[in-house]
Model the fold of this input.
Amino acid sequence: MTELLLNNLVCHELGHSVGFNDGGTSSTSCITGGNNNKLDPYEIRAINLQY
Ligand SMILES: [Zn+2]
Done:
């Protein structure tokens, strides 16, 4: 597994730990289909509102 995919996997699973569901957010973030290691700005705002 490449470093990019490993980082993306961690990003995805951490997203679950803070309440995001598969497919529930932006299609370009690591939570959904985007293999880019990144959370969407919408997701970052949602996390910051919670914690
Ligand atoms: Zn998942």
